[in-house]
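User: Need the bound-state model for guanosine-5'-diphosphate:
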Amino acid sequence: MGLLGGLFDKFKQGLRRTQELVLAPMGRLLGLRRLDEGELGELEDLLLQADLGLKAVDQLMVRLRTEMKAGDIDPKALLKEELLRLLRQRPPRPFLADGTQVVLLVGVNGVGKTTTLGKLAAHLKARGEGVLVVAGDTFRAAAIDQLELWGQRAGVPVIRNQMGGDPAAIAFDGATSAKAKGTPWVLIDTAGRLHTKDHLMKELDKIRRSLQKVIPEAPHRVLLVLDATTGQNGLAQAEAFVQAAGVTDLVLTKLDGSAKGGVVVPILDRLGLPIAFVGVGEGLDDLIPFDPEAFVDGLLDA
Ligand code: GDP
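Assistant: Bound-state model below.
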């Protein structure tokens, strides 16, 4: 099986709940060549249940109606086209090693930030690239321990200071060490308990400034980790993070636990940022680079 075949299977596996609960009942409708008003309404409801978002669903319904005036249609092909068009607006930017690249992970507690960091470390390590993990969430002893465990699993070093220590200081140490050793990747965990935008901004600014003393372009990427099971409900909070933290890419976790996998579409569209990775499980290899084609095929091809 080629790389793309493997990726397609991973997406399919991650989207199984969405498939079973929401998309399977749609199969009959997508196979029709003409749909009456009742069937169009049914299809619209199911697409909304999959959390594809009003915008994508509205656009699709307009297209279905317009094209049916001219003759028979292929609803599944049209749906694929519409979704791809939306997802390709923000194509993922690959993670390429180029000197020492510093990646910050931000997001509220519980979304899967620590797990994602561990999986990302394993992903980069599997490509043969060196990784240093920095335990920058110094407020939760459990988070530091958990990160250390992930570091062991992934086979990459983790640096930490004591609980309650200064995240900016440990970030500085991490960047200094990676630069000295020529380590291509520094992955930094950050605290997720910051409830005010002001507080968040101050803490991230401090980390940013101390990183830039060592590597002026750092951080190269700021990943906002979002939980797919929250669906579109989390979007207002996500928008606040995007503004406060200078987010460059999104990671959507727990796609495997959600029946609303379509949420990828409105999230990308509303936040206006590419999705770098999606989480499809709790294992070390359950983080996959986002690929619009594999995603849409995984969603619609049972
Ligand atoms: P943090 O507080 O944001 O650092 O969140 P954690 O990394 O501790 O994750 C919270 C929970 O979500 C843990 O039980 C993880 O195993 C689980 N989790 C994280 N990512 C995924 C995923 O992609 N799929 C599933 N099923 N569970 C996940």
